[in-house]
Amino acid sequence: MDTNKIILITGTRKGIGRYLSEYYLEKGLVVIGCSRGESDLAHPRYEHFCIDVADEKRVVEMIAAVRKRHGRIDYLLNNAGIAAMNHSLLTPLSVVERIFRTNVFGTFLFCREVGKVMAKSKAGRIVNFATVATPLKLEGESAYAASKAAIVSLTQVLAREFAPFHITVNALGPTPVYTDLVRNVPKEKMERLLQMQTIRRFGTFEDISNVLDFFLQDGSRFITGQVIYLGGVS
Question: Which of 8, 47, 62, 186 lies most in the core, judged by the most C-beta atoms within 10 Å?
Fold first, then answer.
């Protein structure tokens, strides 16, 4: 992976997004991040935008600003996402709407706007974030799993639409990683989930960056429309 490339990562204030920001900064890339709140990540090659990823006007303005300053965007990681772990009979519509706004609408908007920039350069790599909750059909995560199923479909269609511009679009479906979100889930529930995986352990940040590096490397120019689930899930 070339240094000085421009990588845009959504949801960078904490968790996986924060790790990926620091990871790619160490690799010499310019990292553009965003989240609803301010970030305390201070680095000369890191730029942060405070936006809601589902706010179309703000997303358009953000990508225009990045394009004006850097002239291109080489990689996009659509990491921003939210979940709700409730039985469907106890899930308000407002929760479902919030999940879809962030996970689906936000991913679509960034793919669309960054895709325009990449199309001008006739090159680019996009990786969207799916989840093992979809193929495992996890109880209590109907809205979340459905939103990520939409991401899989979106990824596969965009792979075809963006191919003429030499842009690849793939997806990564992580298993649970021990972040703040997972710490709040009952231990018994997490144990049942891990037992459904072929490799029965939590995922790590390194597991995620390993797959992302594969998708982003120059040698992966012929790989698009694919979804890799971690933990042996299919």
Answer: 8
